[in-house]
Amino acid sequence: MNSDRRPGVLPAAGASGAARRGRPAPSTRATQVLPTGPAGPRGPVGPASTVTSAGSPAGRPRAGGHRPPSAPRGADLWTGVPVRTRLLAVLVAVAAAAGIVVVWEVFVATRTGQVIEDYAYDGALTGRTRLWTVAEPVLGVVSVSFVVLGTLAAILAALVRRRWLLAVQALVLVGGANLTTQVLKKIVLERPVFDSEMWWTNSLPSGHTTVAASVSVALLLTVPRLARPWVAIFGAGYTAATGISTLVGQWHRPSDVVAAVLVVLFWGALACALTTRDAQDPGPADDRPRKISAPKGSSSAWVLAILGVAGTGAAGVALWALQQTATVVDGSGQPFTSQAELVAYAGGAAGVVAATAVSFGLLLALRQTVARPRSTASRSGQV
User: Fold this and answer.
1) Domain ranges of the chain
2) Is the dihedral of CA 39, 43, 44, 45 positive or negative?
3) Which ranges carry the Phosphatidic acid phosphatase type 2/haloperoxidase domain (predicted)?
């Protein structure tokens, strides 16, 4: 028996024969707990790390994995969008609200404004037979079912992308815009009577135009980043077509349509001002493996340029026609003729195009800005 073997101490399982015979072995411990800490395995000893069955430390994602998405809560709900961007959206909403008041004050609350719009209203008789064949189907699209289906499409686009709060915003936008139009038209605003022939009741803003614009803007807010420019251009075209069709059918005056577009601009800008983290686009550092948006500019820049040129050109035509019609009304220009009515009518249609192009351009720019992809650090308020 080896005299060097101490009683009560057994050699570790798997020890070499040299260890059993009393000679030191390269390692006398079968297992070793590696310390963890700031300095690593060779630094100061910290608490031992727990190793899972898969071989990765508990509480850490495996290499190459992704953390499950979590809904923003508390203060994180509003992170990621600069305050100045939110303030810009608020200013756009305030300007839209002020624009509604100005349009009503100029074209409804004054005798000159009413006469100018009466010229435009009567000018719609020119070529109405042919134009109505196109305008009637456009107006026929606007219905309760259209509002429901369009709103559901916008909500579905948000839900598919897991933008829960954005879906609520789309619903509130459509409902709020159309409710605002009806309240303004039937309760808040009135149409003064200056002459015995001016017996028309207030028709500002246009309900048909509000429906078309609100559904289009709801889709603009909820679709992915790459699709927004195309939704903006087609939405603007459809809204303008609906508004002009109401002029062709003598359902509304130009100011009614412009005011309806401004109502939707107000609600759309307000939605952009209240953008949550949930409504932002995924960025390069996002925890979720999603496709990153297109390079800067590209389709958004082109669509904004098209809307800007269309809006500027149409606004120029509208202002020229307004000035020409105003001189006829006050007697300082050419006497009244059927040509004056046609000029007023064309100017009103141009005004509709200008208001629609500018409004959709602003909303596209705001939505792309507030939804700009940001890193995880910036979304958590660290940057």
Assistant:
1) 79-284+293-379
2) positive
3) 165-272
